[in-house]
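Chapter review: from sequence to fold.
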Amino acid sequence: MNPEQIYRDFIAALGDDPDRPGLRLTPARMRETFEFLTSGYQADIERELNGAIFSEDYDEMVVVKHIDFFSLCEHHLLPFFGRVHVGYLPQGRVIGLSKIPRIVEIYSRRLQLQERMTAQIARCLMEHLRPMGVGVVCEAVHLCMAMRGVQKVNSFTTTSAMEGRFKSDARTRQEFLNLIALPEVRP
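The token string follows.
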């Protein structure tokens, strides 16, 4: 199956000529674009973590917030994008901070539902880091709601996934929510 031929056929089905000058290279560009936008399917979490989990006697909350992401809605193949906030309570192990945005990137670069992506990020950290708990909050704008359908440009969706103490202990959950609500720090 040749993806570029599929994209050529798609353009023709829309009623345009895939051989006209402005569209001649579009099938190749679409192939490259969708390979990039769905690169999370080829990613290997173990390889991305690359041994970046370290023994450390630290048991207070670690939060990485405002992680930008872009994904594709699996229902319409239209983008949804926003920010993810991640917190965890270490239990003798910490993760290299840059690995958390990498995990977000892997799961966002797939055909997704925001709810599933939020839960996948939390479960991944629980499985690989084995902390006392994990909290993930995702805020996103969905172009399938803004460009078509209800056409509500200013609406956004918030999802959360709480595991371990973030789920069972209201104080832990509230501390996390308070920390992600703090204003951004800019260098």
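Two observations follow directly from the output. The chain is about 40% helix and 25% strand. The CA atoms of residues 150 and 186 lie 36 Å apart.
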